Amino acid sequence: MRLIILFVCSFCLIVVSVWAYNVNYKVRSAIKAVYYLSSEIEKKESRIKLLKAEWAYLNRPERLNRLITIHFSELGLLPLSHENYMSFDRFVLSNKKRPGEVSRTLSVEDTLKLRFEGNE
Amino acid sequence: MNKLHYRPLPKRPNLRDTSGQLEMYFREESRLREKSSFRLILLSLFFSIGFLSICVKLTLIASTDVRSKDFSSGQTMDTESRHDILDRNGNILATNVPVNSLYAHPDKILNIDLVASQLPLIFPDMTESDLQKKLNNNLKFVFLRKSISEKEKLQVLKLGEPGLKFGKRELRIYPNGSILSHVLGKTRIRVMSTSHVILEGISGLEKTFNHQLKTSSSAGHSLELSVDLAVQSILEDILSSGINFFKAKGGSGIIMNVNNGEILGMVSLPNFDPNLNIASKRLSSNDNIFLNKAVQGTYELGSVLKIFTAALAIELGAFSQHTLVDVSEPIRIGKTKPIKDKRWLGEKISLKDVISKSSNVGSARVISFFEPIQQKEFLESFGFFERTSVELPEANVKSSIGSDPWTKYKAAMIAIGHGISVSPLHLANAYATVVNGGYRIFPTIIKDKNKNHGKVRVISEDTSAKLKEILGEVVNSGTAQNAKIDGYSLGGKTGTAEKYDSELGGFNFNKNYASFASFFPLDNPKFLVLICLDEASNSYKEVNNRVAGNTAVPLAAEIISRIAPILGVRPGKSYVSNLENFEIDAISDLFNPFTPQFKLPNN
After folding, report:
1. Is a pLDDT exceeding 80 seen at residue B591?
2. Which residues of chain B have a CB within 8 Å of the CB of A96?
3. Which of A30, A74, B321, B423 is placed for a possible disulfide with B352 were both Cys, Cβ 3.0 to 4.6 Å?
4. Residues A28, A63: one domain?
5. What does the DSSP assignment read for B350-382?
């Protein structure tokens, strides 16, 4: 009986050792994968950061002002002023119909109602 | 067949044998039993330890936190990481980009002469003789450049020198150049070891939030400022153009939300590009471009302070805006120099006119009705004599009246804006209190910082309303008529102070400090614009060419007309576009300026 217990225990020990060894290697391999992924993420993040910095540099106000001046004849961009504000009731919806649009001319109130009811 | 060997038992004695033999038998049996049980304990101990160690190992593996390990390819990246600084809309104001540094191990360089001759071709500021000296100095490590571009790295690699090495690190950049330079501040590189450098804030917000910005924790901790890049850009652009136009020495500007103290724009000119390495010691104190004039410099701002005399008089109930004040002749207090107006304004004028026409005599007369201590305490309640709450290390100044005692004459001088040095930020802070309904505000450059700040009342709402009316009159019919702009109503007060000239030993009437503190909209003030110009002169005017009304005021008006639409301040009803019945196809066209049907009224 003792011999059997000894044998079973030894066997269990060997099995568990092999399993632990296996787990150990899997963990090491996972760590390597994580290391690789982390370095990849780091590279991508630093690339994104660089692109964001470049985007910010390209969109700096001084450059945009320069571009506006250069392309003024095509774009005609001007600083915002009070003239760009308009009273809402001065807008009138035209009678032109678009595909899929309701057939009758809508008043501003109707259109707003539709808009806020989510039907538009 | 093999027999199994087992432990031989002692021979069982015959019961008829002597009792001694029986005793010997039991003794032997007990000895052998003890021996085998010891072996059993040893064996079970061995197995227990085996299983235990496996369990421990498994527990250790299971509890390993992979994230806690440093997996970054270059450890220096983590230590020197620095968070971004953003404006209130998320635009990047300061960020880090990865770069390489170049260093050398001279003992590993195969051909020092070749390296010394080739590197200057890649880096023109290096010289062959310098490199020869550095590389032949028997040093094991020589730092050559703190940051090089990828292109430069490739060129160095092409040299094929094993002794030339690259270190990975980050460079702090400011994509908008000199915009907001005084607020953002600067960083410097601190070399901690051969492979480890850190970025350290040395001025501005970079210094104040050095610890918060350099923390190595994950993303999402960018510093979000209350500044609006578009507003800041307009402020800098117009002020810079104004300084050139009026041939001023410099200037400063502040745009602030009067209700919560958030600073939307702050500029001090001339400024600097924090991306460039400029040594401050080369500059004299007068031309110190690193001086933040908006928070660091204190000036005698002149008449712009007169509103606080009116505020005191109204708050204490002694005057209303219509109370008449005698301005018929100069006022003399004791044996001091008389205080007089630049022109005769009449016999008696109302308090409103005292401010709108900027009468020195009127202001001095009003303050003569009060004790100097009342004026002192009143100005103290606006925070003039304490450090402002703005998060800039340079903003550590307080207003000062010098060493003179606070006498009646001193009080009269302070009432007209002389004898007291004030920083533009202190003034902006106090004006915000005057126009926001009377609450003290605490200026901040950080977004939403004052969200839950309690309100401290300084003057009553009624006083504030009367002061707004007076300040509106300054623009309508007073010294700031050049501030009238289409679409928006605003109020404000001008100030033109003569600068003290140490060579003359007195005030120089040809050198002025012009300022204009304005707010808009007049009926419900939301934003404050303060413009200060140093020695500005309007060459288009033959008289009064140095007064704020002809220098600082038009600049402020231009700034307000440009920033008001950006800040969502709608023009007055009478100023909206006069186009009749503007036709659109759908409501959505209103929100899409690129639809063909949508044409701006201008076009």
Report:
1. no
2. 585
3. B321
4. yes
5. EHHHHHHTT-HHHHHHHHTTS-HHHHHHHHHHT
Q: Are residues A98 and A67 in the same domain?
A: no
Task: Quote the pLDDT of residue B9.
Answer: 61
My answer on whether A46 and A7 are in the same domain is yes
Band of residue B98 on the pLDDT scale cut at 50, 70, 90:
confident
Asked if the C-beta of B97 comes within 8 angstroms of chain A's C-beta atoms, the answer is yes
User: What is the per-residue burial (b if ≥16 Cβ within 10 Å, else e) of B160-181?
Assistant: ebebbbebbbbbbbbbbbbbbb
Both tokens of B231, joined, read 């507003």
Q: Are A67 and A104 found together in one domain? A: no
Whether residue A98 sits in one domain with residue A69 = no
Residue-wise pLDDT tens digits, B151-192: 899 999 999 988 998 887 788 899 999 999 999 999 887 766
Of B97, B566, B573, the CB nearest to A50: B97
B167, β-bridge pairs = B101
Q: Do A84 and B237 touch (CB under 8 A)?
A: no
Least confident residue range of A23-32, A76-85, B52-61, B95-104: A76-85
Q: How far is CA B216 from CA A75, B70, B79, B374, in A?
A: 45, 12, 6, 52
Q: Are B343 and B334 a contacting pair, CB within 8 Å?
A: no
Query: Which pLDDT belongs to residue B465?
Result: 95
Q: Which of B178, B587, B600 to mutate to test the interface with A (most CBs of A within 10 A)?
A: B587
Same domain, A95 and A56: no
Residues A72 and A107 in one domain: no
Which domain covers residue A13, as residue numbers?
2-78
Asked if residue A90 and residue A51 are part of one domain, the reply reads: no
> Which chain A residues have a beta carbon less than 8 Å from that of B50?
13, 17
CB–CB of A27 and B71 under 8 A? no
Q: Are A115 and B587 inside 8 Å of each other by CB?
A: yes
Number of domains observed in the structure of chain A = 2
